[in-house]
């Protein structure tokens, strides 16, 4: 079977000509082509995989994105959309025979519509900029990945990103109302809008979390919400991380849904304390951060319930933030947990799995057993309320065989997640890294059905190829025809259906 690469014979001058045509669309400053500069785009935050693309293009408008994609479509050139490159699953990893389409320069906030509680943005706007744009009106944008200072809304949409406050308010898909998308043949479509529940198929729902495989998002309409009247944040320390885990389901079982519940184990507490001095007790086996928000009367009624549950699970200390400054410090610690781990180990592998939160205590125990079996430390920091684990597997890349051992251990941890009724990813996506684990959850029929959906949008398989699916599957490789060339469509019958 032919691959896309083999379907076209490129002339020796092809790359130069293609580059010239990109200059024609984007101007000289809109195309990166020197080897040195291309290196900055050869990976995302999963730095273990690196590939240098042919070009990186920096469009400023949807029209430019469309013209570049149409050119790629006509020439069978694969491409990879890119936001800020903070993805942790290799989703923005380039392909060596294609280009990267960076949305970094499409970073305008197009409209702030307070009466309708909506904001319309370009995809390169950073997550935190949305909250900053509406904060003075008493509003904020709820999904808050820890990378929110730099990660983009386009990346958040593609990954359906979560964050520390997604337990109560939901993840990205619950806050996206409309999208403008450039399809792989260059066509620009709109789906959804400022009002919810549009008729017809939920194309917007399909796009959110599609990891850049179905098209490029060029405009996003977001829901913003009113800041709560009261916010109270506490942390409780425990000897055993299992007790912190059991407290999480204990709190929700009492009918309290906090805005966020986050757990950190001792390894993470120590590295965070060294890095940001958040005031966490370094001797504790683990801490659980709990944030309650809402009307003051409700928060005041819930706080004693939470404290009772925590004490019932052997909390050693419960510390409630005295003011907004201390609250920010508690969160600063949590949000810096991944980078802080660099102080303990120069190499670590961030995993992302989900489990039912009632299984937290049991699964954390199993992760401890696996860590001992492999002789590798595993730090645990995670969105406990959502059962979204982030085991950080520490290794030394200079020791022969250790990176492979770390990968194997991380895979076994994902197996434990799936066996407990969970999933191989909670918010970081499948990308390049976890496609090998997809078959833990889906059989061939499931994967073929997903692939049919992909082919309906991108029958050539040019849009972020090699990601998500265990093997590169394209319609071309499977001998399928594009919809327009389908016999039913050609006969005219297609129009009737
Ligand atoms: C320190 C750290 C903390 C993190 N914390 C969290 C967290 O709490 N929660 C969480 O969910 N994630 C977290 N992440 C992961 C990452 O930040 C998110 O996945 C984020 O949404 C990626 O955004 P980005 O702009 O960097 O996208 P990129 O990494 O550039 O791209 C991610 C994916 O989106 C695709 N893409 C990008 N833009 C578009 C577009 N406009 N149209 C179509 N596809 C597009 C890319 O092709 C790629 O597949 C963290 C990462 C780091 C490094």
Structure commentary:
This protein has helices at 4-7, 14-26, 35-38, 62-75, 127-134, 153-159, 166-169, 203-207, 241-253, 266-276, 296-312, 324-335, 337-340, 360-374, 402-419, 444-457, 487-490; strands at residues 31-32, 55-57, 79-82, 99-102, 109-113, 118-121, 139-140, 176-182, 188-192, 216-223, 225-226, 230-238, 260-265, 286-294, 317-320, 347-350, 353-354, 378-383, 388-389, 391-395. Helix 10 packs across helix 12. The protein is globular and about 70 Å long. The protein is built from 17 helices and 20 strands. Mean pLDDT is 91; it is low at 1-5 and 481-497. It has a seven-stranded antiparallel β-sheet, with helices on both faces. It has a five-stranded antiparallel β-sheet with strand order 5-6-10-8-9. A four-stranded mixed β-sheet has the order 1-2-4-3. It has four domains: 4-102, Uridine Diphospho-n-acetylenolpyruvylglucosamine Reductase, domain 2 (2-Layer Sandwich), CATH 3.30.43; 109-226, Uridine Diphospho-n-acetylenolpyruvylglucosamine Reductase, domain 3, CATH 3.30.465; 230-435, 3-Layer(aba) Sandwich (Vanillyl-alcohol Oxidase, Chain A, domain 3); 443-496, no CATH class. By secondary structure, it is an alpha+beta fold. The structure holds flavin-adenine dinucleotide.
